[in-house]
Q: What sequence folds into this?
């Protein structure tokens, strides 16, 4: 190999590392995954996380970035040692990040790399991420556009936030199909149905007669008739009527056990993201344990208007759209306001087959 070839290889590998950072910053996970060989690996033992293969790298990255409020990464050149069609090297990283759950900080890290020459140029065969310094002190700065746009297109950085009124508009069939595909990648079962009547019939297929079933406090379930089917139809061992019959002063422990671990929980969500996450909001939190994993099976019925690009937009939908409507209902029914005291974000289902999302082509609930 002549010197010119070595120089060209070094330039291409350095460009590869820059492309990685750009794809991460632009939240373009398909592009980032394409920078690896088909069996390439991204290993982050400090997190811990490990993805092998382009599809795992893409899906794992989307789950990770769905947790961000904002993320900034800069890469500094490191070593490159060429060895024919392979090479090794290191790149030095500085990152600032804040997650939606409030975790935040500054870190300095090293990527330990292996590279492979392919027909499409140099690719990562492996990247191993090693944190060298971590500071979790609260960050003083802000990210002006953190909650704007879907984050997958550079133009989104200057996009105007969607007005709250758009949170009531049903998603297109194409968006529903993207959501369903993302949910399946994340371990959920997902079906697209025409309307609430179809979901009402499908529930009877998915939850066998005689099963213990807890329904969440959901306008979607009430308006669709699913709540009445389950709690007054006689087909199931309905948990909610049993709970309402227990004296809350003397039977609090029994109520807690009943609602935490039914065989089935049937509910809706406040939002579903195009990256395959579900967001539930609650005032008391009593229904969340069953949804989070306490129930053996979970069925979520989701109107088409609840589709949002990402978690930042999902949280805006909760605060700007769902909460005012629920607050008005609570005032009318209970004589007291509602509040978002508990949030549950389901980014993936670790037990494939446990959770099923029924996506409707129509808007229902709020």
A:
């Amino acid at each position: 190999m002549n010197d010119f070839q070595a120089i060209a290889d070094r330039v291409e590998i350095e460009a590869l590392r820059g492309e990685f950072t750009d794809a991460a910053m632009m939240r373009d996970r398909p592009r980032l995954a394409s920078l690896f060989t088909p069996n390439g690996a991204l290993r982050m033992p400090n997190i811990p996380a490990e993805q092998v293969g382009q599809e795992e790298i893409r899906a794992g990255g989307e789950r990770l970035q769905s947790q961000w409020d904002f993320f900034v990464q800069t890469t500094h050149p490191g070593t490159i040692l060429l060895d024919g069609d392979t090479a090794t090297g290191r790149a030095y990283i500085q990152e600032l990040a804040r997650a939606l759950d409030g975790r935040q900080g500054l870190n300095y890290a090293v990527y330990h790399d292996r590279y492979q020459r392919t027909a499409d140029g140099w690719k990562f065969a492996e990247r191993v991420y090693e944190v060298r310094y971590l500071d979790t002190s609260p960050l003083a700065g802000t990210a002006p556009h953190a909650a704007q746009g879907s984050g997958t297109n550079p133009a989104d950085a200057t996009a105007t936030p969607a007005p709250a009124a758009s949170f009531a508009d049903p998603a297109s069939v194409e968006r529903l199909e993207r959501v369903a595909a993302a949910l399946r990648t994340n371990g959920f079962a997902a079906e697209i149905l025409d309307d609430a009547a179809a979901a009402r019939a499908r529930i009877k297929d998915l939850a066998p007669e005689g099963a213990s079933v807890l329904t969440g406090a959901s306008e979607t379930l009430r308006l669709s008739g699913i709540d009445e089917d389950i709690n007054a139809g006689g087909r199931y061992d309905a948990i909610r009527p049993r709970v309402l019959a227990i004296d809350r002063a003397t039977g609090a422990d029994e109520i807690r056990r009943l609602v935490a671990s039914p065989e089935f929980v049937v509910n809706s969500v406040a939002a579903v993201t195009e990256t395959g996450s579900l967001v539930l909001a609650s005032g008391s939190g009593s229904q969340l344990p069953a949804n989070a994993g306490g129930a053996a099976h979970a069925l979520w019925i989701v109107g088409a208007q609840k589709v949002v690009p990402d978690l930042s937009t999902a949280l805006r939908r909760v605060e700007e759209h769902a909460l005012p409507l629920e607050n008005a209902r609570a005032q009318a029914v209970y004589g007291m306001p509602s509040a978002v005291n508990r949030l549950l974000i389901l980014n993936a289902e670790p037990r494939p087959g446990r959770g099923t999302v029924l996506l409707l082509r129509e808007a229902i609930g709020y």
In short: The CA atoms of residues 213 and 264 lie 5 Å apart.
